[in-house]
Each structure stands twice: as C-alpha cells, then as structure tokens.
Amino acid sequence: MTAPTTSPETRQRPGHDRLAQDDHDDQDDHDDLVGRLELAFRLLGKRVYLPSLRVLRAAGSGQVGVDKTSYPLLALLAEHDEVRPSDAAVALELDLSTVSRQVRQLEQSGLVGRRPDEADGRACRIHLTDHGRAGLCAVRRSRSQLLDSTFGGWSSADREELLRLLDRLLTDLHNMSPTPPPLTPAPLPSTPETDR
Question: Quick one: pLDDT at residue 128?
C-alpha cells in the first residue's frame, strides 16, 4: 500500500499555519478596532448630540424638522450672518438642496430668517433670528456642562492627549481623501457677486 501524495500546492510549509493564524489574528484585531471605533463614534454622537437636540428642539418650539444636522448651519450663521444659502452650502460641504431644506425647517421654527439680497434681488441672505441665537447659546451651554462634568475627573494631560489623538485622526482622514475637503469650513465670500 502506498502513502497518499500531496501536491506542492496543498503541501503545508513549516510555519505556514502559524503565519496564516497571525494574519487571521491581525485581521480580527483590525475588525475589532474598526467595530470599537464605530461604536465609540456612534455612542459619542448619541451622548453629546441627543441632549443638544432636545435643547435645540425646545428652542425651535418643538419642531420635528429641527435635528442634529441643523446645528452646523446655525453655528455657521452665528459666525457669518447674512450669507447666501449657496455660500453656506460650500462652507458646510453640503448640497444646496440640503441647505435649502434646512433653512426652510429652521425658518418655520423661528430660528432662521431670510431677507432679499440688496445686491441681487433674485437671491436671498439667511441669518439667525434672536430666537435662533438664544437657542444656539442654550445648546452650547448644554454641551459645555456635559463635557465639563465628563472631563472633570480627567487630568489635563489626558485631555491634551485626547485632543492630540483626535487632531491626528482628523488630519490622517483628511489626507486620505482623494480630494480632501478643507479641515475648516471654506471662508465665505465677502462680495455680493457670489452665485445664489
């Protein structure tokens, strides 16, 4: 009786099983890291944004259309009042249709207003209302209190390390993009000749 033969393709080299297991373990570690990061970002968003959303909805008279995606537009208007929706879309890296929908919802909630553009009657400019400014301040106060209580037990070295690592993560993600968006919103044009 002859022993079965194995082809070179199926014959295992010494150490091949260990290397294959190491590769498998590396992939498991990678998958675990990705899963843990996804969970951490999702929970971070829930823990920070949901309380803010309640504050923002209260400021917007409980309007359902006011959601967490409204906050960046409100924050932008706090820094650059009287902007065209198209300029806001560029600065926030959103489609104009998305910004237009947000403006309508925030306007119905009394947080944002619009005025005709004096330089171009076909265009409009959007701005925070007093109600919107008060709502944004309330959201920022709420977030500040939450983060102050969260980081109260952290050393200053731990807080600085967290900021350093988050900055590094954002920079690396930014650099990986084929056409990286700006790390900060694009500056808004100061001339009225910008497209509507």
Answer: 94
